[in-house]
Amino acid sequence: MQLKWFQMGKLDEVDMKILGSLYQDASVSIPTLSKNLGLNLSVTYSRIKRLSKRQIIKQFTIIVDEDKLGLPASAVVGVNLDPKQRDQALSEIAKLDQVRGIQEVTGRFDAFVTVRARTIEDIYKIVAENLGKVPGVNQAETFIQVEKIRPVVKFRIADAPVN
Q: What is the C-alpha to C-alpha distance for residues 137 and 115, in angstroms, rounded to an integer?
């Protein structure tokens, strides 16, 4: 039987500070994190374990600087899908090497697909020759990224579920 979040205790400001710090840099050591937040090492460690066990922290990961890998061009492609071919189309889109993410959405498009490439011309080719030819993709509109801003995220207790 899976436990509900409220059966395992509420989140508090300490949890939120830990989440915010790890969101900015998941590679930070627990001793450094403890020191930065003014917490006892064992408290910090047990809080992280509890947040992981509750699946509030789903994974620790990295952010790759794809510009330095020779892929500075980025775009979001809004796609409209044939409802009868939706699942197959999304599966095929996910297999494309240049795809970095797919978000199904409501509104004018059915999904947004994030792609990376060497040049804007390469993005055009990806959309026209790969993405646009996936069975079930009815329409695609490309939005070229001109700048990426990564804000500092601060989690607040008011955002967390309460009993």
A: 16
What is the count of structural domains for the chain? 2
Residue 65, pLDDT > 80, answer: yes
Please name the residue that has the structure tokens 């899976």: 2
State whether 128 and 80 are in the same domain.
Answer: yes
Angle at 157 between CA 15 and CA 153, to 5 degrees: 75
> 45-59 pLDDT, tens per residue?
999 999 999 999 999
Nearest by Cα to 57 from 45, 66, 65: 45
Q: Which domain holds residue 20?
A: 9-62
Question: Angle, to 10 degrees, between the axis of helix 30-37 and the axis of helix 41-53?
Answer: 110
CATH of the domain at 49: 1.10.10.10
Q: Are 152 and 2 in contact (CB under 8 A)?
A: no
